[in-house]
Amino acid sequence: MLNRLLVRILMTAVSVFTLVSSAAAEGEVTNKRVLEESATGENWFLKGGNFRGEHFSPLSQINDENVADLGLAWALDLPIPDGISATPIVVDGVIYLSGAFSIVYAIDAADGRVNWSFDPDVRQAFADDPGLSWTARVNRGVAVWDGMVLVTTADCRLIGLDAATGGERWSQQTCDTQLGYAITDSPYVGGGKVFVGNAGSESGDKNRGYVSAYDVQSGEMLWRFYTVPSDKPEENTSPAMKMAAATWSGDALEKFGGGGSNWNEMTYDPESNLLFFGTAGALPYVYQYRSPDGGDNLFTSSILAVNAESGEYVWHYQTVPEDSWEYNATMNIILADLRIDDEDRKTLLVAPKNGFQYVLDRLTGELLSAEKYAKVNWATHINLETGRPVYDVQGEFWNRADEHTVAIWPNMWGAHSWQPMAWHPGHELLYIPVLDVPSVVSDYDDGDYKDTLELFTEVDGESFSPGKLIAFDPVQHVTRWTVEHPLPFNGGVLATAGNLVFQGNAQGRIAAFAAGTGEEKWSLATGSGITAAPVSYAIDDTQYILIPIGSGGGIQFVYPQLGATNESQGPTRLLAFSLDGGSEFPSIERAARTLPEQPELVASAEVVANGKHLYASSCGGCHGKDASARFGGSVPDLRYSSADTHAAWHGIVIGGARRANGMPAFSQLDAEQSEAIRNYVLSQSAALRSSADSR
Ligand code: HEC
To answer: What is the pLDDT at residue 444?
Structure first.
């Protein structure tokens, strides 16, 4: 305690000094500062809070005894219709975060006033490549380093901004959208470098995953590490690529590029000078089609460690060697020093989509344990000798094609996805936002998943609660406590030294739980669904809890109905809470929705059924399942289309009249198909009209 006080006094002295000596030094994040000041908790320097990626605040002014007294310090409405998935960064009283279209905001952390904003104009890319329309609406935040704010864009740019003004200092094209690449994740920083991955393993284009490092100040590229081999043998010259190339058979590399992208999360460790990150799977999903003559398809669905200075391979651990379930391992990585079997180990903790929580030695990649944290039926266990999963026939949907439906646990969206888990170093517990539902595979055929992206909360008469927050002990391998949520896809997590765990949920409720027991200590209905992770910081000895509300992330476009209740469809906002906060909670104004005049539905049931089928494959990913897009989001709910829109339908859908706004041209559809979709949409409007609840 005394130590912390001393550090605090010292730090106050240091910050006063910095203020006097160079008032312009904004966004001043360095290895030294992160290492020396993380213990004070005044700043939230990195996405994971500190170099260990813990999502833990050492502040304890707000604690399990007084959290019920939290009040709103300030609120800021942000013009981001698609919500927030970013974890904010807080440096010396300034919050940095980004939302849809990679628009960056610098906000005064004391009062919520916007200092500057920066718009990289991603929309201009839509006209050329409307496929980016979807990814551009998701952006998981910025990184701050040495006076610079780093942001990525859907159209593959990595941009360096002046932290004081938001002015663009440099921009690099870090991937090629023509090859199916895009970026939704934030960049990561450390040691004067900015590290960036990309997405696109499932684009169907020739997509080969990689991670690149750039110099923060100049934007110069320093190295690039490919996560899978090239289809051209002569290009696989490094030892890592030679090793990887020997693990592929068939023509998947040539056809689809091997995937394995790092579309989410990295952790830089200054102590070992290693950069850790996970990778996604590859196409075709089913292993037998992807690699018919065997091989582990390195480095897909793996955790990798590379030298942060040179980008050279150091070790890998593959979570799913014969992945047929798209179980990405790109979830956030936490570094913890743990006592395991009477030995002090420097470990790396990760809970990938596949439902196992892994403890690895972070210096060597040695597997120390892997235990289930959610329901799993694709593997019985992980063999600790070989490090490999022992597959379960339950999960082999391709061999069970005669069964009408096959339930695979976890779901293809993952038992844990990009919403960050947190670590409490005192309790030695991981707090994982879990999605505990299966994929239900039906009509399986030709290596393709069908109907798997449904979210089933009931299978064979058994129902279960889809969303959970669990406290998992990675040493004893037990779940200490569980909180159930009514909806799937809940928020990221913050743990604090105040013996608290904060998490928002899809219904828009933010809550604080006792870190040891899970007992709810405080909660508040915010009016907007929550997917981002809260953070904490302090200004003038006041601790704040900061939470972005407004559900962000790609899922909401597909499943808007998950948040379609009045209690979760509010605006995108930043809320800052403190013990002496006394601001009034801002009201939520929701425009009443009424269906406009529309043409009559005259098409046959057969045409409508065909339209439904076409809609599901071409339109549902943006306009929502059942044609019900998120209320207030940037993609319109087609059920409310006006008579004028219906009259202009084919011009919009086939002709591309709204391309510039991110509505792709579907020139592959003919007028009859477009008309069938229109009639299906009309049938959904009619259903809405006749239902008592027309929102
Ligand atoms: C990549 C995302 C995406 C996909 C896929 C998509 N749309 Fe759109 N659509 C949009 C966006 C964004 C808009 C809003 C454009 C604007 O603001 O002008 C839009 C607008 C529309 C509109 C105009 C609605 C109105 O009320 O003004 C129609 C009609 C439409 N889409 C139909 C379709 C159909 C039919 C499909 C499938 C064949 C489809 N869209 C697929 C993103 C998408």
So the answer is: 60
